[in-house]
């Protein structure tokens, strides 16, 4: 299975449906798209994954809205996307990569730690402050943002 991971072309529409898997707020997704670089993963020219890289501080980027199409999840593609983001950061002489996820996002917390990210902090009640709707996952409310980082 050959996966091509590349920058979204200026002529292509951003894969909103995919990005919304990672964040239920279209307004927030669009805001990140306007500030960051969107990368897509394609198999036989069909887009099945995406993430946005956003420079947040000098030498620091954040991986935002990483997502794999539901029927392609659980096959190692998410890990490939995270490693690819790390490679891109290295090429751009970035020193720190950050990522954030919900306290209820157990699979995502496993994925990021398997890729070498360490927990740096907790932004308590982030999802209560920034989202109108309550979010539930794995039987618990998503309230806090768990912040993780990877030092290159
Ligand atoms: N439950 C348990 N473990 C999970 C998991 C889940 N739902 N999702 C990922 N993992 C872990 C596994 O332990 C796996 O490790 P292994 O290969 O050693 O078994 C590791 O993560 C990598 O899994 P992988 O198959 O590469 O992930 P994926 O292709 O399914 O992509 C996401 C992972 C998170 C990108 C994908 O599930 C997704 O798009 N989810 C919806 C969007 C989302 O939540 N994005 C993140 C927002 S913070």
TrEMBL record:
The keyword Transport appears for this protein? no
Top-rank taxon, per record: Bacteria
Coiled-coil ranges from the UniProt annotation = none
Annotated ranges, domain N-acetyltransferase: 3-138
- Supply the alphabetized keyword list: Transferase
User: Which SUPFAM superfamilies does the UniProt entry name for this protein?
Assistant: Acyl-CoA N-acyltransferases (Nat)
Q: Which InterPro entries match?
A: Acyl_CoA_acyltransferase, GNAT_dom, NAT_camello-type
Q: Name one GO molecular function term.
A: N-acetyltransferase activity
Listed name of the protein: Acetyltransferase (GNAT) family protein
Organism of derivation:
Fontibacillus panacisegetis
